[in-house]
Design goal:
This protein is of the alpha+beta class and 99 residues long. 23% of the residues lie in helices and 33% in strands. It contains 2 helices and 5 strands, in the order E-E-H-E-H-E-E. The chain is globular and about 35 Å long.
């Protein structure tokens, strides 16, 4: 996570990447990592968090389960690890001020 780059968004943090090794997936590690980063964001006085996830991925399902709000999908937003296959991204936000 890092602060938003725009000077008029000092209240917003962006989740750039969360990776969980396949051997640790489906064991609650992603949930624990997300909870830790959200806690850190609150301590840093961020009130709004944003992120994107590959549509249909484990991350997409995790963010939904953790109460993030989906605002839409952008087609062909990023490439797969092969560097050739485009993937759609779901854009999410979480308002920490509501918690």
């Amino acid at each position: 996570m890092h602060p938003a780059w725009a000077p008029n968004q000092p209240h917003r943090g962006e989740f750039v990447k969360l990776l969980v090794h396949p051997a640790w997936q489906k064991q609650g590690m992603g949930t624990k990592l997300m909870q830790a980063v959200e806690r850190t964001a609150k301590e840093a006085c961020f009130r709004l968090l944003t992120l994107d996830a590959k549509r249909g991925s484990n991350a997409d399902r995790l963010y939904h389960k953790l109460g993030w709000t989906s605002v839409g999908t952008i087609p062909a937003f990023a490439f797969d690890t092969d560097g050739l296959t485009p993937n759609d991204a779901v854009i999410y936000y979480k308002n920490l001020a509501d918690e």
